[in-house]
Amino acid sequence: MCGIFGVITNQDNISLGNVVLEGIKRLEYRGYDSCGVVSLSNSKLYIKKDSGKIEEIQKRIDLAEIPNNSKLALAHTRWATHGKPTRINSHPHSDCSNKIAVVHNGIIENFIELRKALSERGHIFKSDTDTEVIPHLIEIKMKEGLDFKESVVETLKLLTGAYALAVCHVDYPDSIIVARKESPLVIGIIEGKTTYCASDIPAFLPLTRKCYIMDDDELAILKAGEVEFINLKTNEKIEKELKTIDWSIDAAEKGGYEHFMLKEIYEEPTAMKRTMKISKDLLRIFANILWSAENIYITAAGTSFYASLAGKFIISRFLGKYIQAIECSEFQTQLFNSLKNESVIIAVSQSGETIDTIEAIRWAKSKRNVKILTITNVVGSSLTRYSDHVIVTQAGPEIGVAATKTYNTQVLTLALIAIEIAKLRKIELESEIEKYEKALEETPQIIENFLKNNVDSIKDVVNTLEKSVNFFILARGISIATAKEGGLKLKEVACRFIEGYSAAHAKHGPISLVREGFPIIFIAPPDETYQRLIGNVMEFKARGGKIISLVVENDKYISDLSNISIRIPQPGNKYYNIFSPITFTPALQLLAYYAALLHGLDPDKPLNLSKTVTVH
Ligand code: AGP
Fold it and tell me: Are residues 471 and 579 in the same domain?
């Protein structure tokens, strides 16, 4: 939800202000309602904060301007949960004595009762946030005679909810204390010199590749170039593995593109080629588990859910069993008294931190003996801890709030599992399976060709839609997943109310919206639904609808019926058609991107959104 960043150093040749500002900017995708920085010098806290995006705040106050002799700074970028996105609610928050400052990502669920108890003891609150109770609780513990670390440890015992937090204290200028429970936190280090903490690795990637990934119920004391980890359950020191991150810095930055969203769409072919290399052994483990399961569910949120809809369709075809897709937020209520032992649940999440997905899995595990197969893009993310087996998609860091390359790598991963299932079951002739495999292997190239040659046709469509605030994306069969994902992208970044819907079902109500010139995008790969889709196109055309179609290169019929078509350069046959959500979706992502630009919107920072939703 929010992003936190911290740095502590013993180096004189570092501009700490710039380091902290650049670090927090790289986390702005996690929320951009407000931003703040605290530095520490001559036994005083220096807090600068304001509401708005970092760039806007910088015009008013220079967040990077911090005292010269400061060797420690914390920063925060906020996605408001408790309290409006105002300056006063911006982090960092401090205690009554202004000695302790805290930045926090997560939600303190029992903050109302804590706040009441603190107020009764005379503590004055400046904000409406849940976070502000933390510095006050630490203040009390220190007044009781505990040292800084003990005070943080004892405070954490009083909190329920989720947190990744970083704390500093004017009397301890050589330490930052951080702790994690259910919200991501990573530590970067240049040994002997500088230590960083952040909500995500790209925040410090240009500065160091060495990092530790914190787990739940861990606390760390950061000093310049060193770090000590403590297990909060046992209160014992722990050794953690120092990892080397091999992502390119370029991958985590815009690399010449105007927006991360565009860069990430163009990274799809490479991301997919990397994902193709996922260990076959791991794919086979997933395939075997699914093959022997009786009840299979797939659960996720947002784009990951639409990737799951596409993936379950492909897997069901090869597996010969129905997989039920349930939005993670509805998982408990849907399966309240029907979840069976030995069920298999596939959880799909780019971040691995979406709270509703994690909760669905936790609930299922607490109720029944189930197996959890997770597909995520983030190594060591929270979801992986509740999983029996994990596949990490190889999309690399995705900074744009809109999921693009991660959608395709998710569907691809599910399709790769489906191919392994087909091989296990020998569901079709071996030579047939090989053809499916070859078609799947060609999908990155198809996308690359499309992105190279079709941007103008996308821009044409965007221009024809300029005045349209609402329209439909209609499809049948597997393409309903594509339509829904396209609708989500257009809503999210272009702020248009575009509904992805079943073309057949649209006759049962939505068609009444159609008037002369009302736009409808039809997703029309030449699969088994194509003939019937022709009928649907005719129905909407007859009522004056403006028909825009997404078709394969040599399409004849639906493109003839259309006012304008976008052609996907792929052969039209069953081996390719089943993977059409992969090859057709980039066109809709680009459409959403250019529509956002046309309407003067920043596609990387959609209104009211956060990359990772860690609240229910
Ligand atoms: C996608 O563009 C959205 N930003 C959003 O729907 C996202 O896919 C959803 O919040 C799920 O996130 P996850 O994959 O990290 O769990």
Answer: yes
